[in-house]
Design brief:
Two copies of one chain form a homodimer.
Chain A: H1 14-28, H2 36-43, H3 57-79, H4 87-104, H5 106-112, H6 116-120, H7 127-146, H8 154-173, H9 179-182, H10 186-198
The structure holds a DNA duplex.
Chain lengths: ~200, ~200
DNA sequence: GCGCCGAAGTTATCAGTGTCAACAATGTAT
DNA sequence: ATACATTGTTGACACTGATAACTTCGGCGC
């Protein structure tokens, strides 16, 4: 039996292969404790090879988190309705897309908000991370201009929206939204409460 | 120079000493990656001693998380105003106490919501963890009875409150509430939006 | 008071990790 | 063809979680 085909000594695009392998493992290996050596093994190289492309493990984690922000922003852009007739019709698909992204990619989502060293390099002030927040900011700004949203500092309103959606995403990822505790449709209930808090109240509603 | 006084071979209360040492390190060592060996060293015993009191590292982490829930519930009970005149007056001190607990104990707070193996033993359905959620549930239930809160499924409303406060606590812990992004008083703004979403709207407010 | 057994300590070992140094195999530029 | 840089490799180190075997008592029964 012939030996398996072997990759030449120089991989050619190992940096991208490491990143893609890591993303794949984050998505598919449930409850995996991320290790650089395991990623290197899965990519078919030695344990020290990644150190030629990333200064250390944290640098790779930060890069993965950035890609997560990019993908989340794309998911939100795709979910945005074209002609919503109300704030509820506009915010609901975006919120559901956000939570779906988190629950479809729990390890990546946690990573986006947890690498401690990432804060040292100001990761969350990076444009790619801010872009997600800007989707919410833009929507609420336009709502205020249209007179459908309460006249309040829009950044405060965007923070409320972000905190609630971020919070419920994490609760969902952690399996905490059990029905005997939160009822049968916690996500919809939370979004409805958010919208009630943001929108100018209508009579008899 | 005399040798330092040495602890007798049998510690006498090592389980409690391990727990207290771990809690102390979680609070004081910024960005420390929790290790059982380091806790044992700090407690003055060998690296294998904790295994006589905890089956494994996760069991200790779960115990620490439970204590965190106990302390959070006590902090919320202490913050509860005695005669609030509005929902805002009632929910604000409790919310601020919740966020203060999280930002004063960031590593412990993260632990309370992240030990993956803890989910396997149903940690979050434990009475001690549920008690925190019950504080919110009870307050909203009484608000509905008093006619100050919108008539909605109360568990959904409690979930919205919990998600928002949990979310903003984590954003604060992670240092994401930077003013150029969220404005100058994001916490107050988020609580105000939450209250607007929960309370029955008053005319001309 | 003594002996025995179990609890709770210890030391040593194993398999894994992140990271670094030294070396090896090319790829590229001249 | 040669030299140098890039990008691989192997090996080592210090650390981790966990286990096994051994040691030191504490408690209990007689």
């Amino acid at each position: 039996m012939q030996a398996a085909p072997h990759r030449p000594y120089h991989h050619g695009d190992l940096r991208r292969a490491i990143i893609e392998t890591a993303l794949d493992m984050l998505r598919t290996e449930k409850d995996w404790q991320f290790t650089l050596r395991e990623v290197a093994r899965r990519a078919g190289v030695s344990h020290a090879a990644p150190y030629k492309h990333f200064p250390d493990k944290t640098a790779l984690l930060v890069e993965l988190a950035m890609i997560g922000f990019d993908r989340l922003r794309e998911a939100l852009a795709e979910a945005k309705p074209e002609a919503p007739r109300s704030l509820l019709e506009e915010i609901t698909p975006i919120s559901l897309a956000y939570v779906a992204f988190g629950t479809d990619n729990p390890a990546l989502y946690r990573l986006m908000f947890s690498p401690e060293e990432g804060r040292a390099v100001g990761m969350h002030l990076d444009q790619r991370a801010l872009a997600v927040f800007d989707v919410v900011l833009d929507m609420l700004g336009r709502g205020q201009a249209a007179g459908t949203i309460r006249k309040r500092p829009v950044r405060g309103q965007a923070t409320a929206a972000w905190a609630l959606i971020h919070g419920i995403t994490l609760l969902a990822i952690d399996g905490l939204l059990v029905p005997e505790k939160v009822g049968s449709a916690p996500l919809e209930a939370a979004i409805a409460t958010l919208v009630d808090g943001l929108a100018i109240p209508q009579p008899n509603t």
